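Memo subject: From amino acid sequence to discrete backbone structure tokens
Action wanted: Derive the backbone structure tokens from the amino acid sequence.
How to read it: Take the token row as a discrete description of the fold.
Attached in line: The record itself begins immediately under this heading.
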Amino acid sequence: MHSTPLTSHKLKDELLTHPLMLSVGSLGLSTFMSRSIYGMVDWRPVVICVSSDILAIGLDHYFDQKPMQLYALKTENREMTAIFNQAKLLLVTSAILLLFALASSPAWTWIMVTVFLAPALLWDFRLFTFGDKRQRKHNWRSDDSSGRNAFSIKRIPGMKAVIIGIIRGCGTFAVVNSILTHSTSSDPSIWDPTQIIIWSTINRACHAVMADVRDFHEDWEKQVPTIPVLLKSVFRTKMLLTAVHLGTMLLYPYNPYIVFASLYATVLVWFLNENSPRGLYRLSFHSQTLTALLYGGVEAAKWYTSYQMM
């Protein structure tokens, strides 16, 4: 539980603004993958990815703010209560849209969503506890947020960022591919499925590490085994991220979009630190969104040029 109550502005950011802002990333990435690989944009994978993102992030933040909801009810804070009601509406609406899109999709899409969404929904869920019986009984009944004797997916040492990268990178493509797999693009493209999966997974994993840099002080205090905590240094973490981004550019030097995204992400690695405002870290998350917009702009310019020449 928070030592001091959050302000209404901060609560709104956690429950509404943050999930919606991150879902814009899923909107951009799913649309980008659809157009660059399959030459078309289908509403179903876009709606599935966006609504799944809102549900995964929104539910995690909603349950994390449960003490604040009790505080709002106890103090009869109407503004905070209204924010929780809006968050519920957002979650319910997202669930309805997800089910509607899935109902219009093939069975393989259901399997892909289950495989990649389940770990996200169970992200901070205490799967089991360890220690003696008395300790386990205490853990399940207490509100100890550190959960040091409880196992959850996010507490797998050093794997948090990797898992997020797989969910967001591979998962997004798996959903798009499950619906558009029989569609082919006749237009030449510098993109191919393997390339976009590897780049997206690395990009999303690196941003997850940046989010851990943002939360370094809190994670260090609770000894959450993120990569910055394991390396015991934000500087070492920045060196690692820089090496990964440089490696990505060396792997795909012929793709200007990947080079752009990697350079952009590298600049933010050194611009942001554990004391930077949380809102600025959204710039890091949206490196692929900017790349998608750049790709869309270039493609639109090509279409306009060819249209003028007709």
